[in-house]
């Protein structure tokens, strides 16, 4: 609504207010105390009536590892659903990891073109986006990516991108959209059309079914939320670094980042009953600091 009034109708981001001469109003009607109060009261009424807003469940590194392992196993044709072959899965996994690590929306990933990815070396990439939903006028900081340690290869966008580029080279595709539509023979189309969000979501859900995971709670926003939680909880990134990487404000007035870190719909990282259990077995060892305690 704010975008429609501000951009499409040219009213800008200025809050709605009375004009100086008192003859009328100026600014964006959606940015006003009246609208904010109404939306808050509407939310309270919905909660009281039993309606709960459900965000897409976050993709976890464990889920991506299951997909990675599945893609790298040898399967007989009878074991695979016929929704997509190995090339299709290579495309998807590259898009999965890029959206996951860079907190990208699906439409932002699917519209990436070759000239927006700079290959610095075998293990370094720089991804520069021309626009984002929150930065539509440019000045978007690039994502500097380095190949992750082998222990994190299942979430490494550099490795996944390299594998997908090898597929594209088979068909002499070196420019245009990176993640493009596939034909029924598991081949990327040469007419330079990106995969649509609807096609991506359908294939994402098929991928989840391959690894015996219910796709219902997941959506296209699952990667953005999951990557934020992965860097915060597993790689221990501080809040300020997360905001800088994701392009969020560090003023912490609206705390947008909290929506990505916390949701009742996500899988719990540990059982509540174990919070004060000091005799729990060690957690997975951190390959950076070497600690395996739950407080690491």
TrEMBL record:
<protein>
    <submittedName>
        <fullName>DNA breaking-rejoining enzyme</fullName>
    </submittedName>
</protein>
<dbReference type="InterPro" id="IPR013762">
    <property type="entry name" value="Integrase-like_cat_sf"/>
</dbReference>
<dbReference type="GO" id="GO:0003677">
    <property type="term" value="F:DNA binding"/>
</dbReference>
<dbReference type="InterPro" id="IPR011010">
    <property type="entry name" value="DNA_brk_join_enz"/>
</dbReference>
<dbReference type="InterPro" id="IPR052925">
    <property type="entry name" value="Phage_Integrase-like_Recomb"/>
</dbReference>
<dbReference type="GO" id="GO:0006310">
    <property type="term" value="P:DNA recombination"/>
</dbReference>
<keyword id="KW-0233">DNA recombination</keyword>
<dbReference type="GO" id="GO:0015074">
    <property type="term" value="P:DNA integration"/>
</dbReference>
């Amino acid at each position: 609504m704010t975008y429609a009034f501000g951009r499409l109708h040219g009213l800008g981001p200025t809050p709605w207010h009375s004009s100086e001469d008192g003859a009328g109003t100026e600014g964006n009607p959606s940015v006003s105390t009246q609208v904010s109060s109404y939306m808050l009261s509407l939310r309270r009424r919905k909660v009281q009536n039993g309606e709960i807003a459900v965000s897409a469940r976050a993709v976890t590194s464990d889920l991506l590892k299951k997909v990675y392992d599945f893609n790298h196993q040898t399967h007989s044709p009878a074991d695979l659903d016929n929704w997509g072959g190995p090339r299709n899965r290579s495309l998807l996994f590259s898009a999965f990891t890029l959206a996951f690590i860079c907190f990208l929306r699906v439409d932002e990933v699917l519209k990436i073109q070759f000239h927006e990815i700079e290959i610095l070396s075998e293990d370094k990439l720089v991804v520069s986006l021309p626009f984002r939903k929150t930065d539509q006028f440019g000045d978007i900081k690039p994502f500097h990516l380095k190949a992750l340690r082998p222990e994190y290869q299942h979430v490494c966008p550099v490795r996944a991108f390299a594998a997908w580029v090898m597929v594209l080279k088979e068909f002499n595709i070196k420019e245009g959209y990176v993640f493009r539509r596939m034909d029924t023979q598991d081949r990327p189309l040469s007419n330079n059309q990106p995969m649509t969000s609807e096609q991506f979501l359908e294939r994402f859900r098929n991928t989840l079914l391959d690894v015996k995971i219910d796709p219902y709670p997941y959506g296209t926003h699952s990667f953005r939320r999951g990557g934020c939680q992965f860097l915060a909880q597993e790689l221990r990134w501080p809040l300020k670094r997360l905001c800088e990487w994701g392009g969020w404000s560090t003023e912490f007035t609206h705390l947008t980042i909290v929506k990505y870190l916390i949701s009742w719909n996500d899988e719990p990282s540990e059982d509540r009953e174990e919070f004060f259990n000091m005799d729990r077995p060690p957690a997975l060892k951190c390959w950076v600091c070497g600690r395996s305690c739950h407080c690491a």
